[in-house]
Amino acid sequence: MELDQAFSGKARGGAQGVRAGRLGPGRPAWSAMEAVVASRSMDEALHHHSSSGEGTSSPGEGASSHAGGAVVRLDLAYDGHGFHGWQVQPDRRTVQGELVRCLKRLIPLEGLPPGAGRTDRGVHARGQVASFPLSDPALFERIERALPRMVPADMAIRRCRLVPPGFHARHSARGRRYRYSIIRERNPFLRHTHLLVTAPLDVPAMEEAARALLGEHDFSSFCKASSREEGKTRCRVDRVQWLSDGPELVLEIRADRFLHSMVRVIVGTLLEIGRGRRPPEAIRSILEARSRQAAGRTAPAHGLCLEEVDYGDFDRGD
Known about the structure:
8 helices; 2 domains; alpha/beta
């Protein structure tokens, strides 16, 4: 019943292939921040359920590139449980808001530092990227030394560096990788990062359905209806993979871009297939429908994590 309770009352608003994998002994161990939890009650999950914004950005983040002068790139991670998302909001604690608060104590800051993706309330990140122009490069040492110690305990600055002029955390991105984590038995240490699903799941059927997502498609059916922009609904998925390790089941997906709530709607739909409520081949007709009503329910935010952002030549030239 946990999954049903989480979804109750919610409106439906070169490929590497799909393969079953194991998280395996070689993967990095979950840190306290990374593995903070998911067998929260589904009533609580429903209370915290809000739309996510994978692939979107905040207003007021400035031009499409930081033209001229020095640019600072921040690679950061955060436990999204204590934040009302990335975007600055009045009287709400947000990741961008905390970052701005700290930076303003160190340097004159013009505008808001854009993020590679606007994660919503409860969504986590291991590989978020932010950027901002720096009028005086001599200030960089101060930022590099002080900022990692200034951010709150549920955030971490993983790396701070000067990058070529023109770099922009969102607009320079060439792809993003997300993970959505599910736990199939109660684990109080995973209740904020994993969706609890105790009902039996047909994982091979979920794998077969996910295979249809590979390649370039119009993902309108998997986009929050109010956020849909005409002419901007095509995405190329080059990897989608289910990973398992005992009771843990993770969907990893990589694409050139993501629409608003796209990963969470995909997960919700695949879970319906895993529970036998739709056949695996339904994915193709859902894509063709180009209607949010055709897809499944939106999975809760707390299972989603932004893992990595690809910057192509900017990364290779680093």
